[in-house]
């Protein structure tokens, strides 16, 4: 460090260091700008700019070195050899050119390191050659360690500068890079100067032509002037480059704006009206919106007026005149126009007066229109979806209520009464549970179409949800008109529905409330709903009018649900037992346990009414388990040759606890499993049939008997007879009722034959007359059950039946 300090202070003039640094910085900054211009150029121009940059940097570094030499005073006379001085200039320019090339072709890190190494070695070589070219009466002695340190430090600083130059982050990067490179060159030069010592030699004699100091100064000045010239050129080129870039950006923005304008013009139909003559220019897009070829329509306002929908024409012209007369700032109107194919399209038209006469009257109006048909259709669909059922397309509950309120408001002025019909499908749940929701949805669509076919276009039919419908019959003459429509609805719905894989049969129950003076929609529909439940309670597939006092006789569904839960807690349910006899010997074989509910306010509630509710809300599971326990407990008191049959619903069979519930009931009553028979319908097996079959197989393996109830009314009975060995088949009562019909008798005979071949007993349900008994005996049925032999009775009466049949059973 002392040698470096001594070299700078003692052997160099004071003005040398700042002058050399300034020259070096200006040269390198100019070179970097020229190099940036090279990167932005193509072909030969790129190499021309690169060579200019290399010359500026190399010559600037060379000038820095010899300015330092001019201020260097070793205490001896110094001259400069011409050949060595020129060679050092060439080395400096070549080193810079090589560094610029390396930093371009390499990666950012390796390129920067390589360029720094090349530049440092080149500057060191230039320095050594320059020093060797001086003519001085002495011998140069080098400190190689200090010289190598100068080269190493120059490499590090140069690499850092080239790394910044490779990816400049700010607009001041050229200044930063030039500063770091200047520091690198200056540090290398003055460290290398400190590394050399001149030892006087009295035998020295000049051997080659040399340059005096004045000539060298002139050369340095000339080179610096050329570098400054290149600097001015670089500044001019940089401004041109930026101006060209700005121009290209402006051109691109203009092209984009033109493209957007073209798209807008193509998307919208433009029009231009000269008001004095009525001439109307219509763009090609305007024609194409309506399906016409460009220029096909006559350019006159009369043509346009004829295309406007008659219902929209007066409003459209009024809005146009409002704008022309200054009552609105802009003409804007959405209306319909007639297409060439005869259909109507919705358009939104906007326009404005652009030219006026000297007196201020409008002379010319221009505008555009765009097609809003798709938007209007989407809005219409959304509005329709909000007020209509998605499945059937019928009005929903919201729209039904609006129309009911409107009808109530209009009824006094119309002078006619109207009626509200509350409708509910019968046996729909069985189809939905058996075949799933897709089949249920398909059935609902068919039923909705049939209901539409019965009512008038002025009436309203709505789907309220599930299998519930409601109808408003407008302007009826009296109750007879509503009765006629209700009967036609029943006849339309009860026709079988072919759904492809099966034929479904449903009915409809209807409650009617007439409203000559009723003013409240909720009260009116509540009355129709009460009448509906009366219709269901009295046999279904029928209709009933609302009558005063009917409220007390029919419990609403919500009330039944509430009372059903309470009945489970208070033990309001009971079992009645219907006897089953042998068909030939009339010997008692057992009983079927049937649920009964004695409502404290409504009296007996039909199982057909409360069991579907219990299945829907899940109460059937605890209710079924209670019935199972109670039936087993009662059967344990009977003789061992009598069995008890208990019905199992689909909901129970799908529950994982059924098997445990059966075992628990048998164990609690100490009843043999062979004396318990579970009756299921085939609808229980159709959904989740594999799981249901597995459960039944396990129960049968324990000894419990399994009976197939209501055989023949379902959908795939034979397939389940083939898959599960039922102990008993029970023929549905509908076949026994019509057994006198030869076709029905043939069906019964076939069922008995199937049961016999499968080893299953066959029970005929619903035997009510002696003739029916004779018929089932002729068909070889195994057992009979029906009112002819006994109605369902409480347990006490069942015990008396058992006692009375003891003799015949013993025989």
From TrEMBL:
The UniProt GO MF terms for this protein read: catalytic activity
Locate the MHYT domain: which residues? Answer: 12-199
> Where in this chain does the record put each GGDEF domain?
416-548
Transmembrane stretches in the record are 12-35, 47-72, 84-103, 110-132, 144-163, 175-196, 216-237
Q: Name one Pfam family in it.
A: GGDEF
- SMART domains hit by this protein: EAL, GGDEF, PAC, PAS
Q: Which residues form the PAC domain?
A: 331-384
Q: Which residues form the EAL domain?
A: 557-806
PANTHER family reported in the protein's UniProt record: BIOFILM ARCHITECTURE MAINTENANCE PROTEIN MBAA (PTHR44757:SF2), DIGUANYLATE CYCLASE DGCP (PTHR44757)
What's the name of the protein? Signaling protein
Which source organism does the UniProt entry give? Methylobacterium dankookense
